[in-house]
Design goal:
Elements: H1 2-26, H2 50-69, E1 81-86, H3 92-103, E2 107-112, H4 124-134, E3 137-141, H5 145-154, E4 159-163, H6 169-183, E5 190-194, H7 199-205, E6 214-218, H8 227-240, E7 244-247, H9 250-254, E8 259-262, H10 274-280, H11 288-291, E9 299-302, H12 313-316, H13 323-342
Parallel strand pairs: 1-2, 1-3, 3-4, 5-6, 5-8, 6-7, 8-9
């Protein structure tokens, strides 16, 4: 019994250390772009440098042009499998990941709480070890960020955050790709967040300044983002010389902005707070009237699904709305993430302007 226990502990140490070695050495190997993300986790964009995030967007743009526009077949993930753990329902995250991974020749495996109940019918550590031996990567859409952190610690394969209560990094990659396609650049743009201090906003706070983008945030009193995340964002703002502004006045936040962004006011698990939240967010609906405060070239983003109280139909279905292009780009950006974490692929097309 003691011998078996010692072997298990040694195996755990080997898994952890080998993963750390892969991340340490491969992330430093020179490539065409001097960026190599193979073997990395994607838990939050806080862990990625500006150049690494730009590399992901470059790869997404490259794959979109080669596959969609040029009709090339790129089986870059042939023979690889992906475990998709979903504690929360999803349309875009599930379909973009399943179709994208399959389009690249890989095999996605969808797992709900009916199939795998994290930390209940099997410990997170055991789950991480088993999935590491059966698949090449895990995308997990969960409630607790700590579950993702533990999976990443114990697994020897890349773990990707498909959404947690703290962050939604793969959504923000799609947002940035959409803005880069529309404006032709990102540096110097001003983003205005009008809504709840939630996981989507947290991911913008962890990344916008790295592109030289300014951020103006309006949240009702009591619905501000995590102060620890704000502190990190303030440090980024100083480092990259960008503006970071917080207010409770949506019109003030919208002033002079290029991009108006919002999200649901009531996230999954907050249904009991609906009456309180609907009252607190009065005046936060994005309308053309609010758009008059913005720059002349303003556009609108929403990660969907959208409720009319968050943004009216006039804005949502207008030419200023990029929401459906944004939704499609969830596919190309998650494909870029998987290709970057699982292969040595380098983009073939010219690097976009960021």
């Amino acid at each position: 019994m003691l011998f078996n226990l010692r072997n298990l502990l040694n195996a755990a140490t080997l898994r952890k250390s080998s993963k750390q070695l892969v991340q340490h050495f491969r992330s430093g190997q020179p490539t065409q772009t001097n960026v190599n993300l193979k073997g990395r986790d994607l838990l939050t964009l806080q862990n990625y440098t500006a150049e690494e995030i730009k590399y992901l967007l470059w790869t997404a743009s490259d794959l979109k042009q080669r596959i969609k526009d040029k009709g090339e077949y790129l089986p870059l993930l042939q023979g690889k499998s992906l475990a998709m753990i979903f504690e929360k329902r999803s349309t875009r995250t599930r379909l973009s990941t399943e179709t994208g991974f399959a389009l690249l020749g890989g095999h996605p495996c969808f797992l709900t709480t009916q199939d795998i109940h994290l930390g209940v019918n099997e410990s997170l550590t055991d789950t991480a070890w088993v999935l590491s031996s059966l698949t090449n990567a895990v995308l997990a859409r969960v409630y607790k960020q700590s579950d993702l952190d533990l999976l990443a610690k114990e697994a020897s394969i890349p773990i990707v955050n498909g959404l947690s209560d703290s962050y939604h990094p793969i959504q923000i990659l799609a947002d940035y790709l959409t803005l880069q396609e529309h404006y032709g650049y990102l540096k110097g743009l001003t983003i205005s967040w009008i809504g709840d201090g939630n996981n989507v906003l947290n991911s913008i706070l962890m990344s916008a300044a790295k592109f030289g983008m300014h951020l103006r945030v309006a949240t009702p009193k009591g619905f501000e983002p995590d102060p620890n995340i704000v502190k990190v964002a303030e440090e980024y703002s100083k480092e990259y010389s960008t503006e970071l502004f917080f207010t409770t006045d949506p019109l003030e936040a919208a002033s002079g902005t290029n991009v108006l962004v919002t999200d649901t006011w009531i996230s999954m698990g907050q249904e009991k707070e609906k009456a309180e939240r609907m009252k607190a967010f009065q005046g936060y609906q994005i309308t053309m009237q609010m758009g008059k405060q913005a720059a002349s070239d303003w556009t609108f983003l929403h990660c969907l699904p959208r409720k009319p109280e968050e943004v009216d139909d006039e804005v949502f279905y207008s030419p200023r709305s990029l929401v459906f292009q944004e939704a499609e780009n969830r596919k190309w950006t998650i494909m870029a993430v998987m290709v970057s974490l699982l292969t040595d692929y380098s983009p073939q097309l010219q690097k976009p302007t960021f």
